[in-house]
Every structure is written in structure tokens, then in C-alpha cells.
Amino acid sequence: MNRYVELKNHQREIYYFRLRLVLCLGFVAVMMFILLLRFVYLQVVRHDYFHTLAESNRIYVVPIVPNRGLILDRNGVVMAQNYSGYTLEIAPSKVKDMDALIAELATLVDITPRDIKRFKKLLTERQTLGTMPIRSQLSDEEVARVSAQQFRFPGVEIKARLFREYPYTDVTSHLIGYVGRINQKDIDQLAEREDASNYLGSDYIGKTGVEQSYEEVLHGTTGFEQVEVDAGGRAVRVLSRTAPQSGSNLMLTLDAKLQEVAEQAFGDYRGALVAIDPTSGEVLAFISKPGYDPGLFIDGIDTETWDELNGSLDTPLNNRALRGQYPPGSTIKPFLALAGLHYGTRSPARTISDPGYFMLPGSRHQYRDWKSGGHGSVDLFKSIVVSCDTYYYGLATEMGIDNMHSYLSRFGFGKKTGLDMDGESSGLLPSTEWKAKRYKQIWYPGDTVSAGIGQGYNLVTPLQLAFATAILANDGVAFQPHLVKEVRRANGEAVQTERKQLFDMQIPPDHMKLVKSAMEAVTKPGGTAVGANYGVQYHVAGKTGTAQVIAMKQGEKYDESKVSEYNRDHAWFIAFAPADKPRIALAVLAENGGHGGSTAAPIARKVLDYYLLGKIPQPLQKVSEKAGAESD
Amino acid sequence: MNAAKLKQRFMQHLDPVLLAGLGGFAFVSLMLMYSASDGSWMRVLAQFVNFLVAFGALWIVANMPLHWLLRSAVPMYVLGMLLLIAVALFGEISHGARRWLNIGVATIQPSELMKIAIPLMMAWYFEKHEATLRLGNYVVATILLLLPVALIVRQPDLGTSILIWASGFYVLFLAGLSWRIMIGLSVAAAASAPFLWSMLHDYQRHRILMLLDPSQDALGKGYHTIQGMIAVGSGGILGKGYMNGTQTHLDFLPERTTDFVFAVWSEEFGLIGNLLLLGLYGLVIGRGFIITANASTYFTRLMAGSITLTFFTYAFVNMGMVSGILPVVGVPLPLISYGGTSLLTLMLGFGMLMSIHTHKQLVKT
Questions:
Q1: CA–CA gap between residue A612 and residue A580 (Å, rounded)
Q2: What is the pLDDT of residue A232?
Q3: pLDDT higher than 90, residue A299
Q4: Please, what is the angle between helix B135-153 and helix B66-90, to 10°?
């Protein structure tokens, strides 16, 4: 343009200037139009997206944890409850230097290294915008001290929370179980069953026992509060609230007092007891001894206590009733007797002569009876009363292992009972097929002989044996064993557990009558359990049993005094009463208790006395010393 | 003098169209100050005072004869340069930038003064050499522009330096800088981009990078952009209603009375509000174009054109930045954002426009 400047053509200069100005105007118009397009894009095309973002910016959903349901016994006695307490909590997202903060807080309240360790573990396990507890059960004084200084500690809060409590502690530890802090494994499981959102605010989850198996019922439904927050995360106002729904209360089939009596009856013995109402399948007592204090686990157990519990020879953490697998010993005999009658292997009248041992045809190996010299002439009735081994060696051999397997499995041996508690063991009921699969071996006739007296491969859990006893007591009609009688919803609605008949074995009444009367004779003079049943005011049917812990060599005789305590035989006793119309059936295992009649049967006596007569026993003395009868 | 005459005397050098537009901006600004500060009158009052002062300055400048303006160009430029050098040497550091100078009674930001001084100086220079314009004159004018721009870039103040560079460039363009040179320089600029990139401060680089993908650093550098876009987008067509913007009133929006005030408007008045605001800018800018087109001298044409186009650039950069098509460079929304200095500078510019428009007959005669 400057070449025209020399010409000083004013009009031309104005023309070129205005031309450029128009270009500028066009530029301005285009840019404004771009802006306009951008506004349309943001405010019309993508409005929904940004609207959602704005809403999620301002709305924060705060979960409201529901109250966990109570656990009551059949009479309404509380076995698990909640109490409120104060906790000191920290919101990690609002804290820059956590260590410094904890150090400062420690000047106001006691914070042990254990608390800090647990808190740090929580931090790594759970990501939250909320708060995490560092100390629970603050005293009133501690609450006051922290509250007064709270302005100094942004992100620190005192919260009232509900804590779980188990009034019966170790008496019900294996039955009720406990709740514990939700860990990564729990979170994964919750995610799997698509229940994670219901646990957003929850700290605890059932870990074992009824607390675990009825977790979904006990937990309740988490409520939510939609809170409008500002950019600093402070709540401005509550927009909406969905109330939480408390968990249902559970009324168990259990009798707390019976449970207590049974637990005490064990004295110093380790073992297990399961008592079932044979007419309904209701579990009346469920003991695994020793127990432990479930309260230790709620907020995470410390390493020392854990090592102590876990390393103890008494294995207090092992739920013997549910998971302990033991040879049933002679308690298998009444069931085998019924099998023998069923298959016609034995008639009631047929007697055998017992020289004190049994030999397989073509073998010189002697299978010894528990009584050296034998029981002389033995029929089916007597075989149960005196617990004649030789009788059953022969019976089993003639019947064959596969018939035995097929009949005994009807009583629930070798499979889970389906009790409403997680982690049940299934025991072991051997068969040729099983052995071929498991050991790739053929079944030897000798295997059948030891199976005849409940040794060898046979394994049962106390729960299984109690269930089998209940089926027998109820003449072959089985009801599903269960622990929960009623679920009481928060709205007052109560759902009863229907008694569920599993099957009817259709055992001929005369078979039933014979075996039952023999079992009743067990507790009478001449029977193996007479010692524990002197002066009993009702009729008890029972069967003693001994489970070998270590195998005896051929010709060697078991001598209790020679084996160490933990290698002594386990004592079994199964019983039901009243014998004519049973209301309770049970199985008792006293670990390393020696003879069933002298240690296990007296425990059963206490339980039956309380259940049938309401008799509360004096604290039990050393049971074995009082016992009279010599038995297997 | 009667009232009517007084009024006529008062209004003599004011342009009614521009004045109406500016009044509209004042109204919008005060309204937004009230909303953005959550119903507090403090900001509103302070901004009201800013407007009073700025309108006063506008009236004074509008009433100045044009040769006063012409004569003030060199002293203002020299003063501005001295102050910029003083800032570089003794300036106060705040937020990592050295932009302010404490002169005892107040803290001033000399770069604001340069927004007026540079186009004034360059227009004066071209006017002086109008008769014999050569390439060399453009080179000198460019140097006059780049010296202060370099000083401001170094402060660092990316937003202001872009605006000042633009105001000078508009003068160059309107003065008839040849297309060949412009294209050549553009190519050169593109080639030197990597070098310029290395000159930028880390935070400026971050801001530019965040423009490309603000979500990359949602809680850090991208936060401003994202929250601004959420505010704009969630406003929808009709907006959330005055005082009802959740982004605004729950503190999610940063700098909502200053750089991000447009997001407040957008959130509460939606697309309709944005159209109105663009219309208002269109009105003022359009009037500026008309005044420019009718300006009678080389100097006034260049000056008026630069003022108008700079004003547009201001508005475009701010709205583009809030709506996420330009990087967050810290440019306020002209005539609306809170702040006395920028308001004063802008009104001085409009005062000059009015003076140019109303004094042209006097110059001609």
C-alpha cells in the first residue's frame, strides 16, 4: 500500500483502510460465531453431561449405617447385641501429615502403637472420603478433652458408633461367631454378590458362625442422605434422606441356659456337643470347647493374642462341632444294627459266639474285641448293650462295605447336614468306589472289619452324629437341622423357619423298637453307660463310643496311663430321651476323654437333666473319677 | 445556563450508542458481582465506585481535544517504559510474578497503562511519518511494540502481553503492513514456536497443555477450565436462574468475580444470556467500527481501530478461555470482571473513541 502513499491520494488511502477494516469486521464476526458455536455445543449438545457433572459436584451421598440385628435364643435371651460408644475418627482426605496429627492426638487420649498399626492397615484397605476410627470406646473424659480442642485438628471427629457385644463370650463363640472389620477379601465378595453399595458406610461384617451365615439378614439396608456440599466438602444442606432399615433380629432355636449347662458340663475337657430336637431339627445346644472371646476379633486381633490362640494345642479357634472329624467308634453300632436288619444280614434272634476276637476266613490276623475273652453268646440286642466288637466285625464283613455305605449315608454320614452355618465338614463314609478314587487301591476285607466298629476310614463330625442320632430317635424321619427359629424384621414382621422334613427311611417298627430298647439298656445296669445314669428320672437311650487317636499294634494293649494326654482316645456318647418319645437327641465328644461311658455320658446326663427336668447342675467335678462302669 | 443547556454541554462529547452499551455492561457487571459474591454488597459497591471513577475518566478524555491525545503519546509511552523497567528491577512479587510497583500511595500495574500507551505511541508514529511511509517505519513501530511486550512477557504476564501485542498489531495492520510481510512473519513465528515454548514459564506451559486435555489434571491445573466448562454447560439454554448457579454458589468456580465471571453469567442465564451478552459486545464493537470508519485523520483511524479490535480481543480471549477453547491466560472479561485498573484503561479507550467521534469536525476546520 505504501507505494500509493507517495501519491497522497486521500480517497484511495481511505478506501484501502476501510477495506482492511471490513476484513477486521469479518474476522470479528467469524470469531464471535465460533464462540456462539462453542456455547451451543456446551449448553445444548453436551448439556446433559455437564448437568450431571455439576450435580455430582454438589451432591454427596452419605450412607447411614443400619443397626445390626440382635441375636436371641429361643426364649428371647440376648446372645449378640449392640451398644453405643464414642470413637475418635480421622478423615484421611483432610489430613496432610498423618503422623504429626496422631502424635498430637496422643497427647489428649491414649493411642497405643496397636491402635496406630490397626488404623494404618485400615487406611490401606479402605479408600474413603469419610472418617476412619483410630480409637474406640473413648471415656467421657477423653471425649470432653478432644471436643474442647477439636478446632485445632481439622479432619478429626468424635463419632458415636454402635459396637457388637457377645454376653456369653466363649460359651457361644463357635455358634454365634463374631463380626470383624471389613477387609479386602470381604469387599471382593460383596462386589461379587453386588452388595457393595449396601456396605458403603459399614465397618463390620459377620466373619464366622451365625453372624456370618445370616449376614445378609442381620446387616439391614443402608440408608442414604443426599447432602449438598461446597467445593471444600462442607455440607451445606440435606437434600433428601432415605432412612436405613435395621437388620432383622434372629431368634435362634438354641436354649441359652442349656448351652451354658452343656458348656459347663465339659469341665476341663475339650470336645463338642450338638443337641437337636428330633421332631423338628431345631438345634438346642451347639458347643465346641474350648471357645474364645469373640470380642477380641471385632476390631482386629493383635498378633500376640492371635498367635497364642492359633498356636494353642487346645485349638480354641477350631469349631469342632462343625468341622472336627473323628472316627465314630462304637456309636456307629446301632446304625449298623439297623443296616443288618434291613439287609437281612442279621436276624434279631441270631446269636454269635464271641471268643474275644474275630478272624477273616483264610487269615490268621486277630481283630480283638475291647473285652479280652469276649462276651460269650451275643445277639443283636446284647451287641449294642455291651458294645460287642466281634459281633460287628462279622456283621460288617457279611454285609459288605458298599451296602454299609449305602445304608449309613441315609443317616447323613459322609455328607454335610446342611446346617445354616458356613464351613461345615462332610466327614467320610468310605466305599470301594471312594477308595479306588482316593487311593487308587482296591478295598481289602480288613478295611471292612475296622469299618464295622467305626474305625478305619470312617470320620464323622459331632453335628453329623447328632443329626444321625436325631433321625434314629425319630424312627427314621429326618428334619433339616437348623439354628434359626424365627427372623424378626425391623417392621415387626416375623418369619418362622418352617420345619422341613428331609426324608422318611421307612424303617420297620420292629427294627426300630429292638434297636431303641437295646440303646435304652445301654444306660441301665449291664450297659456301657450305666455309671452316668444312676437314678435317672426318665428313660434314656444311648450308645457309648471310643475313637482311637493312635493305632495299636497287633497284640499290643491300649493303656491309658502310658499314652500322653493328647494321644488318648476320644470319648463319644450319643443319646436321646425320653426314650419312648424323644424330645432331644445329642452327640457328645470328649476329646482324649478315654471311655465314652465314663466321660462323655455324664456330660450328656447334665444336659438331659436340665432340658427334661430343669435341673441346674452343680459345677461339674472331674467327670471321669465319678464314673463307675467299665466300658469300651 | 439552564438545565437543558447544561445537559447539552455535558453530553456534547459523549456518544449515546456507546454510552448505552457501556451502561448495559455496568448493569450486568454489578448484577454479577452481587451473585458471584453470594449476595454481599461489598463487591457491588466497590465495583460501582470503579465504574464511577472510570466513567469520570471517560468523560474527561472524551472532552479532550484530539491534539492533546496526540501530544500525550510520547510522554505516556516513555513513562510506561520507565515504569516497566522499574517493575523489572524493583517490582513486588506476588503469585510468582513481578507485575506490581509500589509507588508509596498505591500499588500500580504499569502494564495496564501500556494497553493505552502502545497503540497511542504507534498511531502517533505512523501519523508523524504518514507522508513518507516506508518499510523501515514499520520496523521501528514493531520495535516500539516488542520492547514493552518483551518486558511484560518476562514478568510474567501472558494474558496482558497477548493483549498488548494484539493492540499494537492492529495498528500495524490498519496502517497498511504489507500482506507479504505478514505472511512471512507468520511463517517465521511458526518456525520459532519451539523457541518461544522454551521461553514460557512452567505454569504457562501447563496451562496450554491443559487446554488440550484439561481432564488430565482435574484437581490441579485443569481444575479452573473444567469447573468453568461445567458451569457453562450445566447452564443449558435457559440457565439455572439468577443467584441459583450451583457451581457459583457452592465455591466450585474459581475467581468468579474476576477471570471466570463469564461462567457465572453462563450458568445462571444460559445460552439466551450468552446471546444477549454477545449482542451487547456486538453493539459496542460495531459502534467502534463505525467511529473508526468515519475517523478523519490517519492517527484517529489507527487509534480507534486498535481500541475497538483490542476490546473485542479482550472479550474473545476471556470467553474462549472460560468455555475451554483457549488456554487460561488470566484475561478478565472486559467491562464486567471486578477490578478498577482494567476498567479505567478500557474506559479511557472508549473516552478516546468518543473524543475521536465528536471532535472530528473541529479538527477538520
A1: 14
A2: 67
A3: no
A4: 40
Read off the amino acid at residue B120: L
Q: In this complex, which of B231, B234, B320 lies closest to A35 when CB atoms are compared?
A: B320
CB < 8 Å to A15, chain B: none
d(CA B274, CA A40): 10
A36: nearest CA in chain B? B275
Q: Which of A207, A56, A67, A180 is nearest to A129 (CA)?
A: A56
Which residues have CB under 8 Å from A240's CB, separation 6+? A225, A226
DSSP sequence for B17-39: HHHHHHHHHHHHHHHHHHHHTTS
Query: Sign of the CA dihedral A473, A476, A482, A485?
Result: negative
Shortest alpha-carbon distance between residue A53 and chain B (Å)? 7
Query: A461, A469 in Cβ contact below 8 A?
Result: no
CA distance B133 to chain A (A): 6
Name the nearest CA neighbour of A278 among A575, A509, A486, A628.
Answer: A575
Grid coordinates in use for B246? 450451583
Grid coordinates belonging to B172: 500495524
Name residues 20-79 of chain A within 8 A of B (Cβ). Answer: 20-21, 24-25, 28, 31-32, 34-36, 38-40, 42-44, 46-47, 49-51, 53-55, 57-58
At a CB cut-off of 8 Å and minimum separation 6, what does A358 contact? A366, A367, A369, A389, A390, A393, A394, A449
Domains of chain B, residue spans: 15-63+201-359, 73-198
- Other beta carbons within 10 angstroms of residue A74's beta carbon come to 16
Q: Which DSSP symbol is given to B182?
A: H
pLDDT at residue B143, rounded to an integer: 92
Please say if the pLDDT value at position A8 is more than 70. Answer: no
pLDDT at residue B97, rounded to an integer:
73
Question: In whole angstroms, what is the distance from residue B185 CA to residue B171 CA?
Answer: 16
Q: In this model, does residue A623 exceed pLDDT 50?
A: no
C-alpha cell at A254: 438354641
pLDDT at A191 over 90: no
Residue positions of A annotated with a catalytic role = 330
CA dihedral A85, A88, A94, A95 (to 10 degrees): -160
Q: Band of the pLDDT at B149, cuts 50, 70, 90?
A: very high
Q: Of B170, B271, B293, which is closest to A39 when you measure between CB atoms?
A: B271
pLDDT at residue B222, rounded to an integer: 65
For residue B256, the 8-state DSSP code is T
| Residue A437, SS3 per DSSP | helix
Confidence band, pLDDT 50/70/90 cuts, at residue A583: very high
| Three-state SS annotation for A229-250 | ECCCCCEEEEEEEECCECCCEE
How close does chain B come to A240, measured CA to CA in Å?
17
Chain B contact probe: residue of A18, A28, A229 with most B CBs at under 10 A: A28
A97 to chain B, closest Cα gap in Å: 20
Q: What is the pLDDT of residue B223?
A: 74
Which of A220-229, A545-554, B41-50 is least confident?
A545-554
Three-state DSSP at B107 gives strand
Classify B53 as helix, strand or coil: helix
Of A28, A44, A54, the CB nearest to B285: A28
